[in-house]
Amino acid sequence: MEEDRRSAARGGALAEAMASWVGARIDAAHANPGTGLVALAVYAGARRVLGAGIGPRVAGVGVLPRLPRLRAGGAHPLLAAMRAHLVGRRVLAIEVRGDGVAVVAGDLSPVENDQDDELRGEAGPSSAAALAPGLGPAAPAPGLGPAAPAPGLGPAAPAPGLGPAALAPGLSPGSPASGLGPAAPAPGLSPAPAAAARLELAPGRRGEVRLLDGAGNLILRWPPQGSAPPAEIAYPEDPLAAGAALVEASDDAAAGQEKAALARAVKARRAALERRAEAVRGDLGRLGSVARLQKTGQLLLAQGARVPRGAAKALLDDWETGGKIEVALDPARPAKAQAEAFFAKARRYQRGEAVMRARLAETERALEAIAALEADVAAADARPEALEPLAQRARSLGVARAEIAGAGVAGEPAAAGGARGPRAGRTAPRRPFHAYRSASGAAILVGRGAEDNDALTTKHARPHDLWLHAKGVAGSHVVVPLPKGASCPADVLVDAATLAAHFSDARGEAVCEVSYVPRRYVRKPRGAAPGAVVFDREKVIAVRIEGARLSRLLATKEEG
């Protein structure tokens, strides 16, 4: 019994702190689902914020000194529902109960709003009839609703420590949405309309939020799978101190999640750069085959006439070593005529050497910068002001914003459920393309292989997007996403054509012709080989490969 009285006193402290909020307009709703903090802000002479921690990381209830710094974006379903049904409406009633706190919100007519404001200005907060938790109503003051009873007066509480906290002036007696007892309306006011929504907060490590409409129908429950809130809420003796501790704990926990998300994103970027550097070194390693390619071309020119037509391979005499060299051939073409293909490949390797070495040097510089950033992130304090400059550095080094904002770094929108969103723990599906960015920021999608080319062209590209391919040689499909009815800017077209040439057998050529058409004119014949397509209404651009442009484009690669 003594504990019940102490609980009632603590609940009474929270009810008293919020009594003047009744009739105030709700002007903000926020939450950080990753930590479990839900906040509802009203303006009652100054901003007042009710905070409830529903777990998993923070639990409890109190009056917050400020809004949480780290919180979800408005697209989150909990935030979207609260803002749609609560923000902009008046607080009709607040209830402090054994199983949590409920806020009833609704709209008043313009006349009622004006009269309500006048009453609040004349009578002050006491015109909102406040009830201490667990105590029944006393005799109303003349012209006003029930006044706050003194301890020990009025009927006994129906449940220990927990009754309705406050009733809005003008709320009709026995309103089913409010769940409160009778109260006399303020003088001159008509009964208030039915409540528009009711927010029920059950704090605790496994607590929940329930949003109901005025008829009591469930609009949203968070977490969606439900929870097991405690039977009795441990209300704080000092709601202001409890609220300050609650918001600090939420921000600290969220910042720790942000630091971990940023560290993962930077580590993934470093791994991608290491893979890129290894690939470029492999390309440079093929420069050693230039002499062999030239020698094969010379031998084919001299001995190709002896190779039977339709042969898939040939054994050529190596005059330098006295041995034999086996060469794979295209059966559809005369062997001697294929010598030029070996010379052309050798020339491409030679011309591409400068570009490859420049790209390797740039990648190695980026690796040094990302390694330094990784060390700085590891040493940084888990605070928003410390993490935001590091997040900006990460974005400048090619880390995708979505990866950095996994749980809302420094106030960026957070995914539902924590660092990786509602599908946390699942591997993201592999994209059939890599994305690059033009100088203007436009996306350019490049297929990753033959089957990926088909997926990019037939499943991802829209009919009005621009489709490109190096003319007359094997290579990647390239797509430039465009708004419907828009044409491709000239600089983006040149950037996309440069990538189409680079990711084709024409890589290394100084000039390459690239075909481009709207995607609607590209089709995949039945039974065609992977990556093989036909297209109509072809236009051709002859693009000169500029080393600086190509290096800039390759540096924007977004791993998919």
Blueprint (SSEs and pairs):
Blueprint: H1 2-18, E1 25-32, E2 37-43, E3 47-54, E4 59-64, H2 77-85, E5 90-97, E6 100-106, H3 110-123, E7 129-130, E8 164-167, E9 197-202, E10 208-213, E11 218-222, H4 239-285, H5 290-303, E12 313-317, E13 324-328, H6 339-379, H7 384-396, H8 401-404, E14 433-437, E15 443-447, H9 450-460, E16 466-470, E17 478-480, H10 490-502, E18 511-518, E19 522-523, E20 534-535, E21 539-544, H11 547-555
Antiparallel strand pairs: 1-2, 2-3, 3-4, 5-6, 5-8, 6-9, 7-8, 9-10, 10-11, 12-13, 14-15, 15-17, 16-17, 16-18, 18-21, 19-20
What does the model show?
This protein has 560 residues and is of the alpha+beta class. Helix content is 34%, strand content 20%. It is built from eleven helices and 21 strands. It has helices spanning 2-18, 77-85, 110-123, 239-285, 290-303, 339-379, 384-396, 401-404, 450-460, 490-502, 547-555, and strands at residues 25-32, 37-43, 47-54, 59-64, 90-97, 100-106, 129-130, 164-167, 197-202, 208-213, 218-222, 313-317, 324-328, 433-437, 443-447, 466-470, 478-480, 511-518, 522-523, 534-535, 539-544. The strands form five sheets. It has a seven-stranded antiparallel beta sheet with strand order 7-8-5-6-9-10-11, with helices on one face. Strand 9 and strand 10 form a beta hairpin. Helix 5 runs antiparallel to helix 6 and helix 6 (339-379) runs antiparallel to helix 7. The chain is elongated. The two termini are 62 Å apart.
